[in-house]
Specification:
Blueprint: H1 3-16, E1 21-25, E2 28-33, H2 38-47, E3 55-63, H3 69-75, E4 87-95, E5 100-107, E6 115-117, H4 126-137, E7 140-142, E8 171-176, E9 181-186
Parallel strand pairs: 2-5, 6-7
Antiparallel strand pairs: 1-2, 3-4, 4-5, 8-9
Length: 213
């Protein structure tokens, strides 16, 4: 760990104590926060002079449904140790004052309806990031003033970055010349063989068969 990261880790521990779990890997510090402390921690990260994270430079969703249950428990902070949440929001913060970065991870406590507080009142840049996480992962950010889909169509069904979302989707869109408008219909993609054809029939493409010497 570099001296700058060591200083950041020390400032984080002095500010939050054991309320926030910190890990260091690949040259970056990650803070794992409980959902009910999320807003307070994020506001402190911005306002505390020894931390001073003025900018939210990224926020995305993560679906941990295919992760090993034991591995997930190593990542989370939860009051119920048996709980293995599926969805998380991951934020990347930048301090221009101190020239350091921090990753913050918070898990939604409910897998069926993943709801987290919006940080848009702390960093206005969270606006479209949270909309994107809602669109692609179904994360609901409580307090967001305009939580609409951002990348998919308003009539899109499901959330395409979830691990259980089918690759082909559920519906397809095409122009109907009779109705003179764009319509939705069930996906018509048929499964096809994608295994390379290694064994060719004799004489394929004019090739002479290999004969033993």
């Amino acid at each position: 760990m570099t001296s700058k990261l060591a200083a950041l880790m020390a400032n984080l521990e002095a500010t939050f104590g054991t309320d926030v779990r910190m890990t260091h890997a690949f040259g970056q510090i990650t803070a794992v926060v409980h959902a009910n402390q999320y807003l307070d921690v994020m506001r402190t990260l911005r306002d505390e002079a020894s931390l001073c994270f003025e900018q939210l430079i990224d926020l995305c969703g993560v679906d941990y449904s295919v992760y090993d249950e034991v591995a997930k428990r190593e990542l989370i902070v939860a009051q119920d140790e048996s709980m293995c949440p599926r969805f998380a929001a991951v934020s990347h913060l930048l301090s221009i004052t101190h020239n350091w970065r921090l990753r913050v991870k918070v898990f939604a406590p409910n897998n069926e309806l993943p709801v987290l507080p919006s940080v848009i009142d702390i960093w206005s840049s969270a606006d479209w990031y949270e909309r994107e996480a809602f669109d692609l992962f179904g994360l609901v950010f409580d307090g967001h003033p305009d939580l609409r889909r951002l990348l998919t169509d308003y009539g899109f069904i499901g959330h395409p970055f979830r691990k259980d979302f089918p690759i082909s989707g559920y519906v397809e869109m095409r122009y109907d010349p009779e109705q003179k408008r764009v319509i939705y219909q069930p996906v018509t993609i048929e499964p096809r063989e994608i295994i390379p054809r290694v064994i060719r029939e004799e004489g394929y493409a004019g090739l002479k068969p290999n004969r033993p010497n």
